[in-house]
Amino acid sequence: MTNFIDLGVSPAINMILKQIGISNPTPIQEKAIPDILDGRDVIAKAQTGTGKTLAFLLPILEKVDPAASHIQSLIVTPTRELALQITAELKKFANEIEELQVLAVYGGQDVEQQMKKLTRNISVVVATPGRLLDHLRRGTIDLSQTQTLVLDEADQMLHIGFLPEVEEIMGQLPDERQTLLFSATMPEQVHQLAKRYMNKPLTAAVKAEQVTVEQIRQLVIETTDRAKQSSLITIIKEEQPYLAIIFCRTKRRVSVLNDALKAEGFNSEELHGDLSQAKRERVMKNFRDAKLQYLVATDVAARGLDVEGVTHVFNYDVPEDAESYIHRIGRTGRAGENGLAVTFIATKDLQLLGDIEKGISMKIERRKIEGVTMFQPDEVGHKKKRYEDTSEESARRPRTGGGRRHRERIDTRGPNRGSHRSVNQTDNREIEREKPRGGRSEDSRGPKREDSRGSRSEDSRGPRRENPRGGRSEDSRGPIRENPRGGRLEDSRGPRRENPRGGRSEDSRGPMRDNPRGGQRDSRRSTSTQGPSNRRGGSGSSPNRGRNR
Known about the structure:
The protein has 549 residues and is of the alpha/beta class. 34% of the residues lie in helices and 14% in strands. The longest helix has 20 residues, at 377-396.
């Protein structure tokens, strides 16, 4: 069996490897390390969990000169978590190598603190593209003497739109350099990038089938969109994972699912790009320390995470292609351990599942949840055809008004409130006509005409006419006329006359007479208790004044 010494690793580095519990190289390390030590450009195709991080770290450590004042190696990663993870691996060796200093440069950290650290003799920088470009534009990082560039998870970096940033970073590096490209998959973008910026690269590949089939048991759960959440909870209770990662397609779905799991009593947290850097680091630390059992995450946030002890991966949302599927399930079954990957599908996901099975060259075992039935494609097609036939028949059928329910509706306004009327009848309350003289038009209460004298017009509540002497007009509540002596008008409550002696007038509630002592009284009660202002004939208020107004 090959050991690290046979691959060209120095005894000092080999001793550190043994101290951290690593004795034998993995297949990707066996293929990549000798060529990298020879200074060749290398394209390594390997999934996370195959030991690819050490495949490029060990040659970098062999070549580094801690006494040099410039940055000798640059490692670029798509996510902060992956940058921190690689930095943590580097520090295991830096603690044993005198004066070796490494630095993680990523967003969410204080720029000023990073600038201070960059003034030291930093040998290796691990960075995300955005923050690295920020420092390059500030002039706080100098890459003009960097000898080795590593692009880790290159396919994901280009997939999420970092190609312009990566090209700008490469423009800051010297032409004479070694470029290493590590990726789980090799889409066309990665091939084009390698063709433009790498010098006759060698390829070191580990077949994806070795990873997805041998170490990880895969299972598909047939469910529906509505029952997906309850199906996940059912499987979790059955499997009782030690540590599990649950993948969702969007940040919002991550938050909603995490809230639901917490409501069920599960020890879970969410991980996505909207969280502050401090919270992301705290969540990952708790997950690595097994203080957190379930991590609900998006693809990008969890890309490249290497956490020991992950026993289960749940694909709550089906990944978009076989490459993403391989990346997801690679979080479990690491370091020779067994793992379980469970994918939940509804009818609409069958096409995606077929593409994934074709990409990994195997059929995945399926299982149903008791009480949950997923519609099969032929059932969905039959229902869709029946719906289309019904729609076409309805479109061809002449519109005759339908049944009673459609022919009649209840009148909710006007004098016939509550009665049924036909929609086919002409209803003058639904016709708006403009009057020849302008002004108010007809509405649903009936016709309304402008009075020739310019005052209020008639409407459905009864005729209303302007009194020739001015004042209030008649309406449907009864005649009302101006008293020739002035004062209050008569109305439908009975005659009302002005008392010739002044004071309150009679109305339909009974006669009212002037009191000889200056007060007022009527047939209902005495007004002898009125205030002083009334006894003096003043204009003070009295209990009866409000009624006359």
